[in-house]
User: Fold this.
Amino acid sequence: MLFESRRLIPLLLVAAAAAQPAAAQVPPAPATDYRARSPEQEIVYFVLPDRFENGDTKNDRGGLKGDRLTTGYDPTSRGFYHGGDLKGLTARLDYVQSLGATAIWFAPIFRNKPVQGPKGQESAGYHGYWVTDFTSVDSHFGTNAEFRTFVDAAHARGMKVYMDIIANHTADVIQYREATKDGYPYHSKADYPFSRRGGAGGPAINPGFAGDSDGSPANWARLTDSTYAYTPYVPKGEEHAKTPDWLNDTRFYHNRGNTDWKGESSQYGDFVGLDDLATEDPRVVQGFIDIYGGWIDRFGIDGFRIDTARHVNPEFWRAFVPAMLARAKARGIPNFHIFGEVATDLYDPALLASWTRNAGLPSVLDFAFMRAAVDAASGKTGSEELARLFDDDALYEGGKPAARRLPTFLGNHDAGRFGMFLKQANPAASSEELLARDKLGHALMLTLRGVPVIYYGDEQGFVSDGNDQMAREDMFPSKVAEYNDNHLIGSNSSTATGSFNPDHPLYRTIAELARIRRSTPALSEGTTRVRASSDKPGLFAVSRFDPASGREVLLAFNTSASAISANVAVDPASGSFTALAGPCPGAAIAPGSVAIQLPPFGYAICAAKD
Ligand SMILES: [Ca+2]
Ligand SMILES: [Ca+2]
Ligand SMILES: [Ca+2]
Assistant:
């Protein structure tokens, strides 16, 4: 989840050309029927509220007094609060909607521990993933009333609101009495069973506890002593740091030391000290059903993105998910969307799909799409993995229709930005080539199956020169030197001057692709048939089919630096075509075949007329 590295990418020059869609015309989404839209009909914009827009400078320090180690506020440091807030986000909804987004997903806005980390390595909870109060908005971001204003303003525009939630851990409050020279290494269930204090040879504790796979309340009532692995304690003055108050009891945590992200510790270990919850305990399950059900009841939000989902036992989600869907339905939200984070760098649909089957997650972030699309659009590989993706969709619970609800993306706040991946794969690429590849990647995401997620700032050519903190640039004028020295894609501007330019070529391209997607049901709800792929950069083509009429929409992409002329198989009934984007043939050359010509990194969206 949170890790840090820095890479610098040199920029050199070569020549390239690309398809240039017409300027965007964005019809407003109908405000009245947003509840009726299914998850796959959305286009999502993902934003970190701290880094988006500062609508109220009075809350920049979260009502706290002192230096940055107390308030968390330091707009010159990438690891601290910068001042963005809900008021700012609300004020910029027009910018988000004009890009074509129909839903907004924002990093957690719950109250966080403002600053944590060992002396000299402190950073702030600006990202929102260090929660202390799960029931309130962090005062750096505003108030619960301002959150209501934000949700209501989005809904009034017909836009949906997806909250980012966490059940795996809280902020780092609980500490351990024992420290080793290696810190707090993971203490396994084998070496430190629940039944003994401080290891298998220690005194007997917790008599009658039948292990944590017995989820009955009677069993968990017998786990009264938390000292099986470490001796956890809550430091003086922090006894009620967390809300609801049950979260302050060490019995509701694993207390087994830090995860090494492998095996058992992936579920039971602390993320660098973050207090890992005992999500097997039925009281913890009910606690989170109450917490997050409360946000549905109070604010009528439209969905959840679940952080660190793969670090929680599947049984937890099997109880939590149906409870949330029922809660939403009762609140008049029939299309509530839930998608989990099962993070991986690899092309691994089986891993992702296992969480839809074992844990019953309705959907997961599509890290497989990210791997395949980034590698294809950057020219690192051909398009064979991308072509395979649609076969692998059968692995998900619910099969191919369920796969159409997977949120797809090209980069994020943890892994880094799409622009960075393009630069890493093409260190000698010209600015024109990077822009063309960037448009190509977004064309893949906005036309292929899945729910496109635009990572804020990508539409302004943000590049990030690293992952995590380096990939969380400011949209308002930034004071962070490591952001402001970046060479943006498609612009000579810098993040120092503010980045809400609706004329940026990527903003215009994404807006146009989003408009096409919204007016072409085949792209959001249609089945997919692969027409062409290759083990080297070159032609990638698929057909999507309108769910009502069965009419074909041919998508063709050139992932190579050379122009392409090729015949592509189509439905024999598709005799003539309308170009929705790029160069399309007016008619088939013979029943079942069209001649496609694409410039380097070009793409075409061709709708059959009959
Ligand atoms: Ca502010
Ligand atoms: Ca866990
Ligand atoms: Ca801790």
Q: What stands out?
A: The two ends are 48 Å apart (CA to CA). The chain has 17 helices and 21 strands.
